[in-house]
Amino acid sequence: MLGPPDGPVHGINTGAALAAAVSDSAESLARTVLRKNLAVGKGESVIIETWPHTLEYARAFVAETRRIGAVPTLLYEDEAAWWDAVGAKNLGSFAKLSKAEKAAVGKADAYVHFFGPGDQARLSSLSEADLNKAFAFNEEWYDTAHKGGLRGTRMSIGLMPDVFAERFGTTGPKLREKLLRAGSVDAAKMARKGAKLRKAIEKGSELRIRHSNGTDLTFRLGVVHARADTGIVDAAAKKRRYGVLANNPTGLLMVGVDKANAVGTLVGNRAVYDTVASKRFAGSKWTFEAGKLTKRSFVEGAKEFEKAFAKGGKGREQLSYFSIGLNPEGKEAAPAEDTEEGAVLLSVGNNTFAGGTNKAKSRGFVMIAGADVEIDGKSIVSGGRIR
How many Å from the N-terminal Cα to the C-terminal Cα in the chain? Predict the structure, then answer.
């Protein structure tokens, strides 16, 4: 895996112009991730995995690793060669890790993974069977990382080449700059906010969300499963199957709720995205009665929501999950738009990913920013700012 392709990859600028454009922001990101979030120390081994469209960012991580006194290894996946193999259905080599990579992952202390390939639009068009084959090594990778005690992070900036960012109503450079800023926020500061909110939620019995746009929703907190995701890979994170890699950017208090018994109306004022299929859900209005979603409308995304909802089965209409954003730079930073400080993302349906018991086959999301949130009458978020 040596050497970049001859030209730019699907709308991504490469070379000196990009290096100049991202240098300062990329260096700030590398400092935060390596020194604060992953706490890389002198003499440790750090693997940075990159694609052509993220190579300039990866260089900043290599340089910062050396400044720390740690030892970097750069793994390079060539975009053109990857698509050649996928196009020819030559996917056998993707079934498992090579002996060399497995040994490297097993011995490394820290790992930084930039998502690829760069052509995310083309990736989303692949069949489920081909996608499964192309990433079949994934579970072996996590097995190896767990055994070796690895700590690392997934860099979402790799998901936003120019051609794909346009689907989110912006340009690649603008969106990637947002992701760089959001990814550079100190995880420890967000963790402190998250711990305070978690304590209030776990002790509380009723949560209420209000906004001048017509939102007024109340639900019981009964059995909750809460954890903060701020980019720190600690002992608790490593116990989870995929917890050895944190997301970047991030900044969320994630709460699975069983039998929430929601009542009222929620009017979304932020778009929510399914980045794998580049679906956009916006202008959502949900009404709950006796704990169930009884009415819903969307300006965008109704067809996709209803298609999944129809197959959702038992529990599909139950409010089962919410998150509160902790990141002061998270506003409209797709695919991490739910990290916006004080923004509340709510979901019906399956919540097993958050430790809950709702096993519905569907999920659906709505998000509101700038709201007031109370627990048992006490304010925890005021006008979108965490108290």
Answer: 49
- 175 bridge partner residues: none
44 and 100 in a single domain? The answer is yes
218-222, 311-315, 321-325, 373-377, range with the lowest pLDDT: 218-222
What tokens does 54 get? 């993220």
CB proximity list for 318: less than 8 A, separation 6 or greater: 259, 260, 291, 292, 293, 348, 349, 358, 360
Residues 223 and 133 occupy one common structural domain? no
83-98 pLDDT tens trace? 999 999 999 889 999 9
- Across the range 117-139, mean pLDDT stands at 91
Query: pTM for the whole thing?
Result: 0.88
Q: Judge if 172 and 283 occupy the same domain.
A: no
Which contacts qualify for 168-175: CB closer than 8 Å, 24 or more apart?
168/273, 168/278, 168/280, 168/334, 169/271, 170/332, 172/11, 172/12, 173/21, 175/333, 175/334
Domain check: are 140 and 210 in the same one?
no
Q: The domain containing residue 355 runs over which residues?
A: 188-386
Among 272, 257, 268, 255, which Cα is nearest to 219's? 257
Residues 56 and 151: their CA atoms lie apart, in Å, by: 22
